[in-house]
Amino acid sequence: MIAYLWKREGGFGVLKRQLWSFQKAMIAVLAVCSGVPIAHADLQRTSFGDWSLRCRDSNYCIAEAHGTASNGEAFRLKVERGGKPEAEVYVTLRPQTPLSEGVMARIEVSGTGENYGFFGKARQIYEGNEMTFGGVADRPLIENLRLGLSARVQIEFGGKDGTLSYDVPLTGLTHALLRMDQEQGRIGKQDAIVAWGGVPADASLELDRLASSTQGAKEKAAPASTQSASAGTALAAPQAPANDLPPPVMPSQDAASAMLIYDVNEIPERVRFLGYSGLNCQLDEAVPGFGAQVFVAGDEETWIVPCGMADANVPYYMARYVASNPDVTTWLEFETPPGLNEPNHALVNNLTYDPQTRQVTGTTYSSPNYDCGVFERHEEMAESGEYELITYLEKTQCDGVTGPPEGWPLSWSIDEMGN
Predict the structure, then answer these.
(1) What ranges does the record give for the region Disordered, renumbered to this chain (predicted)?
(2) Model's pTM, two decimal places?
(3) Is 162 exposed, middle or buried (0-12, 13-18, 19+ CB in 10 A)?
(4) Lower CB density within 10 Å: C or N end of the chain?
């Protein structure tokens, strides 16, 4: 199995909400409620930058990019997934040079900071001369590809072929994977690749109907019918690694007490301007992926808006907007503990807002395992309407022990240590 080395987070994908997906979702809901069967049509190849996406009738979707290897041969890198709720994600390479079991493989993903390396040996070769990277792709590999700028795959074939490199641009991959989430009905669910949220990945009526209607035309359980390159015998589909982490449910995606907006154009122009001009946010990428929240109290609206794409640490800003007087629109700033000697900040990672207590919390994870980092809690001051820091928790040991950040050790408190 391919082992991976996670170095750091970084990079941004690119995505854009499309109006037709909402219309299609509403038609699907009405049809299911009325008992009318839904006929799925194949999604023809649709281009997203350097990547494209196509889906079959059974909602088996393939995002792929084509390129030329260091020896001049053509190749394809694919991210593919079946339409069922429990379907796994696979990253597959299809070169022209014949693959064999045991060849050394490496993916290096380049982002805005350090690179990420995934290393190991190819254990299985699939029909059509395809290989996966670790069988089922775990989240770190998918997220680094999605948030990276480019990737290089190196295969040590040995002999006359030596080591070949396959360079792949990643522009458009997030677009393609978001569309895959839309086609497979995963928007807002825990098993989505891009637009994941708090809804369980349970089997819907439509997916049940789809599964029963396609019996006899078996959906792929792996990228292709598995076969050994040396023996030619069928192999079982790869199993998900036992230690693979599910994506965390970001608190600001909990829409229990707020309206959740996925279309950036539905955010008031003044609130968008704050993000674009003042904070250099990528709203066209982040809002369709994570959703913006709006809390309405009379004429005043409180907006919680994602500023950029990330896996563990999604930055949000908070803005107050008055519909009758948009000129007074402003973002809120938040304090850090005095000992850190840092200026106030408008961006808070994984920001949550409680309109009842008027408190804002944020969590910044220091590890992709979500087992360490800092947790901040701010409270609105009645007279000024500004926020003051009341507690700051920090867990410095990334020991694999996860739990609510509210239970991390106290680092600073306004009650115990004063202003």
Answers:
(1) 212-248
(2) 0.47
(3) exposed
(4) C
